[in-house]
Amino acid sequence: MSAPAQLVARTGAHIAERLALSAATAEGAHTATAEVPGWLAEHRRAGATVVRRIPFAGLDHWSFAPDTGDLRHSSGRFFTIEGLHVVRGGAEWQQPIIVQPEIGILGILAKEFDGVLHFLMQAKMEPGNPNLVQLSPTVQATRSNYTKAHGGTEVRYLEHFLAPRPQQVLTDVLQSEHGAWFYQKRNRNMIVEVDGDVPVHDAFRWLTLGQILRLLRLDNVVNMDARTVLASAPALPAETRALSSDSALLAWFTGERARHDVRARRMPLREIAGWQTDEHSVSRVDGRFFRVVAVSVEGAGREVAGWTQPIIEPVEHGVVGFAYRLFDGVPHVLAHARVEGGFLDTVELAPTVQCVPSNYAPAGAEERPPFLDALLNASPDRVCYSTVHSEEGGRFLNAESRYLIVETDEATTPTQPPPGYHWVTPGQLNWLAGHSRYVNVQARTLLAVLDAALQGGGTH
């Protein structure tokens, strides 16, 4: 006779409580927070990695396909750079786009020490990082990486994420990546808890969530992949009221997805209009937005010691920010239902502002992104958070943005915002981030620091 079925709680409140305790623990059991920047610098020096720009002809195993002009690897693995044709209502454009259909793993290993969850973070080199080495998840690997398509070494700790027991999983969700540069890219964002001893390699350290939050106040220390995994984890809702109920918020968001007519199709890279290719780059004729370039990486200290690859380089630094207001004592941020050509769905929730301001310099004031000047011109006492973070360093070169959370008012960000914008609470944003394709990667970076910043833990 079979044993009776055992029921469990449907909600992850106990997980959120344990994460909240870790967030409130400013120092961990193994590594002092103040030691981490120096530890990262040591790995930077020890690696002695050199990243050089090279002409496309200098790429090893990469070439432009003779029929389409797409940039491909000879193995057929990793990724391709193709063209994308996007039609959105009356607007239309073409651009290069990274096509990487395989789903990678972004995984953080968790373990309890002295009753507090700690997270195994990695000092990882990525060629596109401005400072090369940043704090990364335990595992950060594409399928091509961990199946060793490059012929390299094993990915450390990967076994914990391939088939974990359900009770070990604290969070597990497929999340989108940059829809302006990736075509329908998704990664599996995971936090998996272990009980037994875990040998710690020199490139890894156990840190509490509170320590990581303090490090998120520093420029270019915590990488994008770590930020998105942490933002996907459940949090205790700090509020029980909001300007919109959860069902009303979902109805608004579903309406935004339905009202946008976005058609995107891949096309040959050599045929995209408004772009030019020379021996060193694929770039817009007017020099705006971004370019595709090639780099050589030597002395990497990664799964392979050196390689060459194409990489996307933005032309300038960006600004990414949430406008923040209190309504009857409840914090809200102004989210934007943003269209990007590479999204699997038409829109995802983005920060209030997400742009490169210099791209709009030639345009009139009416063409500048809404609320950009409200964030840029805010007085210092209204800036709750201001830190420079770089985007994913494996595919983007020096892609830095200043991430902001700025307190605003009725004059600059009205209670009834324009179409496409909606006030949401941190709890609502976290709830949506626990599901695929609701909250974009830039908003997830700000979500990772949102509660700490609004409670006075941010940086001015």
TrEMBL record:
Record-annotated dTDP-4-dehydro-6-deoxy-alpha-D-glucopyranose 2,3-dehydratase domain positions: 34-232, 248-450
Alphabetical list of InterPro entries matching this protein: EvaA-like, EvaA-like_sf
GO molecular function terms attached to this record: lyase activity
Pfam families, alphabetized: Hexose_dehydrat (PF03559)
Listed name of the protein: NDP-hexose 2,3-dehydratase
The organism of origin for this protein: Streptomyces spiralis
